[in-house]
Amino acid sequence: MEQTAVHTHIVPYRTFVRVWLVLLALTAILVFTSRVYHEALSVWAMLTLTPLKAGLVFYYFMHLKYERPFLKAMVLVTLAALILFIGFIFLDISQR
Amino acid sequence: MSSVAAGSHPAHKDYEGSKLGMWLFLFTEILLFGGLFLLYSAYRAKYPLDFHVAGQHLNMVIGVVNTVILLTSSLTVAVAITAIQKGNRKLTMLCLTATIVFGIVFLVNKYFEWSAEIRRGIYPNGPELLKLPDGEKIFYGLYYSMTGLHGLHVVAGIILLSIVLDLVRRQRVSSADFNKLENAGLYWHLVDVIWIFLLPLLYLAA
């Protein structure tokens, strides 16, 4: 009826339930690949599926999808800084 | 009728600013845990075998069960926010209560997990820990620091959500003003995201 003071997007319940199901499925895949003793497969699964899971939580559960581009950019800059640090650490490690 | 905060004087509220402030705080949290992830990566590169062996001794089942619990608790917080936007106070309170219960169950599991490790003599300066090679000592040090710091965040999240639950009950947080619920929810989701990374690093990487 009345317009609320907060201008935000109302995310339908089913969107959240779907994201939750995908998160559970990805977790199951991660656990499965870690049990098959295939080194390369499990490492690649971890390196791709884990950030994907975190991304889903950020994008849907934390409403980032519905935020202004400014906030999205800030999140990207923070994550880029962290990835840069990790990259430099590995550059350093690999030179020892 | 009007959705301006109730009371004798209209309060000035800046929802965007408040949410932005919460995100800025979360950035510091990301970098705090990021530092620990860096330490982990650097030492794992130095002691790959020790990390592998030590990781095998962790209880993977508890790690996975706790992951499912936290993912589900994130769902209930997200649903609570949609519910309050739709003015469904009952569902909001139900979901928040569920989230708090999930958080407590997570900590109880953590208690049993840590107790089992401590009984094995694996704790700072513990008899069994001192016999292990350096890499395994470092793994367990990181294991206790990372899950411990994360556990403290779960405790903080439970306290925050309990306060918000009470505010919802007293209608101080409602469809007209649910900013506090949103921010508490953001915090809880971040705690979940950190655990998403801890699961493969500590429990699955063996």
Secondary structure layout plus pairing:
The complex is a heterodimer of chains A (about 100) and B (about 210).
Chain A: H1 13-35, H2 39-61, H3 69-94
Helix pairs in contact in A: 1-2
Chain B: H1 15-46, H2 48-56, H3 60-85, H4 89-119, H5 127-131, H6 134-169, H7 179-204
CATH superfamily of chain B: Cytochrome c oxidase, subunit III, four-helix bundle
> Based on helices, strands and strand pairing, what is the structural class of chain B?
mainly alpha
Number-wise, the strands of chain A total 0
Global Rg of chain B: 20 Å
User: Residue-averaged pLDDT of chain B, rounded?
Assistant: 93
**CATH topology grouping of chain B:** Four Helix Bundle (Hemerythrin (Met), subunit A)
Number of strands of chain B: 0
Distance between the termini of chain A: 65 Å
Q: How are helices and strands ordered from N to C of chain A?
A: HHH
Question: Which features would summarize this protein structure in a list?
Answer:
heterodimer, A: 96 residues, mainly alpha, 2 domains, 3 helices, disordered N terminus, B: 206 residues, Four Helix Bundle (Hemerythrin (Met), subunit A), 7 helices, elongated
Written account of the structure:
The complex is a heterodimer of chains A (96) and B (206). By secondary structure, chain A is mainly α. Chain A folds into 2 domains: 62 residues; 31 residues. Chain A is 75% helix and 0% strand. With 206 residues, chain B is mostly helical. Chain B is elongated. The longest helix of chain B is centred in the C-terminal third of the chain and has 36 residues. Chain B has a single domain, classed as Cytochrome c oxidase, subunit III, four-helix bundle (Four Helix Bundle (Hemerythrin (Met), subunit A), Up-down Bundle). The termini of chain B are far apart. The mean pLDDT of chain B is 93. Chains A and B meet through helix 1, helix 2 and helix 3 of A and helix 1, helix 3 and helix 7 of B.
